[in-house]
Amino acid sequence: MRSIRVRLALIFSSITLTAIAGIYLYVAPQLESRLRDEKLEGLARDAGLYSRDLIRVIGTNVDEAAVNRSVRQAADRAGARVTLLGVSRGSQGVQTYPISDSTAETKIEDIDFTVALEAARTGRTATGTEPTNEGRVGEAARPLFFNDRVARVVVFSAPLGDVQGSVALIRRQIAIAGAFALLFASMAGYLVARALSRRSCSTSRSSRPAPSSCVPSRPTWASWRGR
Q: What is the pLDDT of residues 159-179, one digit of tens each?
């Protein structure tokens, strides 16, 4: 009967472990993807709302200080980093180059802004992520037109650390809950097997001689002598 208890406990544990693994391997990545997409959609909305002042200065005699001020104002309103890039067309095709950045950086080496190049080539807002020296960031690039051509591209970007932190927290909670569920399943399987064995022994006593595993051991003469 002991082997049956162990087998049932293992079966219950295996089923529970499979369910936990499925949740951990499927739900957590799906959640991370959904949170990342929501972050990118928010950046794209901000790019559409807070880049109007930058559109107005294209093709005007506004000085560099005014452009930098408009970029910083857009960043403050959106709560994101804002980078304004120019667009050039030559023998190598469409290329982008930085003009202004809300962090007062003009020489940007850790970000390629591939979404900006996509927006310049397609004329549509592009979103994506890329790694930087400070971790992965989400980006939304909006093309800015002048004379029916893409003249500038503005990129709204923000770190994805909060998304990764939320997913890591949920994964830890799944792991902790899974450990308790696995322990409970093992105990439940063992108790069910124990109850079935007792019921089997009770039925055996009422109908026919009980198996040796159901008969309690009796003290021997040697054990009585030892008392």
A: 888 776 777 777 777 777 777
Residue-range domain boundaries for the chain: 50-161
Q: How far is CA 53 from the centre of its chain?
A: 34
- Give a three-class secondary structure readout of the chain: CHHHHHHHHHHHHHHHHHHHHHHHHHHHHHHHHHHHHHHHHHHHHHHHHCCHHHHHCCCCCCCHHHHHHHHHHHHHHHCCEEEEEEEEEECCEEEEEEEEECCCCCCCCCCCCHHHHHHHHHCCCEEEEECCCCCCEEEEEEEEEECCEEEEEEEEEEECHHHHHHHHHHHHHHHHHHHHHHHHHHHHHHHHHHHHHHHHHHHHHHHCCCCCCCCCCCCCHHHHHHC
Separation between Cα atoms, residue 92 and residue 47, nearest integer Å: 28
Torsions phi, psi for 189 (to 5 deg): -60, -40
pLDDT of residue 9: 64
| Domain 50-161, CATH among 3.40.50.2000, 3.40.718.10, 3.20.20.70, 3.30.450.20 | 3.30.450.20
Condensed to tens digits (0 to 9), the pLDDT of residues 6-51 reads: 666 677 677 777 777 777 777 777 878 888 899 999 999 999 999 9
- Name the more confident of 65 and 225: 65
